[in-house]
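ingest -> validate -> predict -> emit
validate: passed (alphabet ok, no gaps, 443 aa)
predict: started
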Amino acid sequence: MVGTKEDAPMELHFINAALPLKSPTKRYELKASKGVWTYIGEQAEAAAEPAPKRTVKLTEADFTGGAEPVVIDLEGRMLLPGFADMHMHLDKAHSIAKVGNRSGTLLEAIQNYGGMAPQFTKAEIKERIKTTALAALSHGTTYIRTHLDFHLAYGKEIAFRTMEAALEAREELKGKVQVQLFPMLPRGQMGDQELAAAAELMKLGMDGLGGAPHLGETPERQIAQVFELAGRYGKPIDLHADESDDPARRTVVTMAKLTAEYGFGGKVTAGHLCSLAAMPPGEAAEIIGMMAEAGVGAVTLPAANMYLQGRDDTGPFRRGVTRVKELLAAGVPVAAASDNIQDPFHPFGRGDLVQIGLLTAYAAHMGAADDMHTLLRMITEIPAALMGLAQYGTEEGAKANFVIVDAQHAAQLFIQESPSRWVAVHGRWVSVSALHRWNAPEA
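emit:
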C-alpha cells in the first residue's frame, strides 16, 4: 500500500488502456487533472503531444508523486471505475474469533452477535470498519455502503456506539474510500422510542435507512414505517428482504407497492431475495415484474447466501442465491456485493468484488461472453447508480477514481482474479498490490 498527500492529485496520462464498459476491443488514451478525467479518446484519435513525455510501463511507474509526469502504457490492461460494494457489514467484520456459530445458521449468527454486541467497544468497532474498508480498497473498491447494527434493546448508549464509531471511521477514510452508512432499524413495529432514535440517527448524518423487516413479526407495518421516515427525511431505503428458504416470505411485494405509492422509484433497494429462488417460477416472475415496474433495485450476496441458506434441506440442497438472470432480464438493476466478511454470518471473504463476481457467475450460471460484461457492470455501474454516486465512471468530467487490473478482458479477470491491482482516488494513487512471480530456469 502506497499513497501520496491527500490534497495533491497527480496529472495522469495513460495509453493503450482497455475500457471494457465502453468497448470490448478498442484501446483508449486517458488524461486526468486535479482528480477529474479531462480527456478520454480512442487510441487512433489520440491528440498528439506537442512535447511528448517519457513513456513508462505500469510496472515501472513511480506511485509516490515525486517524479516528473510521464505517460503510462497500460499495455492493454483494463482500467475500470472504482468498484462499488453496496452491501457490507463493516461493523461486524473480522469478529469471527470472538463470535462463533457452531450450526452455521442465520438464526444462530443473529443470536450470537446480538449477545456479544454490548461487549464491543467503540474503538474496536471503528478499527474493524477501517481495517475492512482499507482491505477492500486494496482490491479496487472505492465506494462502500455498510449496514450497521442498531441494538436499541440494550439501551441507547450501546446502540449509538456503533453509529458513532462508523461516523468517525467514515471521516477518517475520506480521500480513500467513500462510505455510506445505513443503520438497520429495530425489527418489528417501531414505537415512540424507536422512532425517536431513528430521527436522531438521521440528524447525525446517516445516508439512508436499512433493516431486516422480514425477520420481525409485523414486517409489513415496519416497512411502512421505514417508508414514512424516508419520506420525512428525504433518504433512500435499502432493506434486507426475504433472506429465507421459505417461498412464503414475500416482503418485497410490500416494498414494491410502497415504492410505487411514494414515487420512490430508483430510491429503494432489496438485498438477498433468497425466497424468490425457492418459489415456483411463475410466482417469482410476477413479483419480479412488480419490482421492475415500481423501480426497486436488487443486490445479490452469493458468498453469504450460499453459506447460510439451504441448511435444513436434506436434498436437493437449495443454493440460496436469488434469481439473478430473471431479475436482470426483467429490467431490475442487480448489483453483486460482499455482505459479511469473517464474522458469524460468513467466516470467509476478503472484500474483493472480483471474487464476488466470480461467485455470482457460478451461482447464477453466468458464463457466456455477454455475462462477463454484465458481471463487470454488477460491481461498477449498476451499484453506482443504485447508490446515487455522482460523477462516477470513465467519462470526461467524472472523478478519476479507478482500478487497473492485470487482465485485458472481463473473462480473463474473472478466471485469474488479477492478484495485482493499481488503485487511485481523486487522481492520486492510494494502493498498489503488484504480484512479482519468479520461476526457476529449466535445467
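The mean pLDDT is 94.
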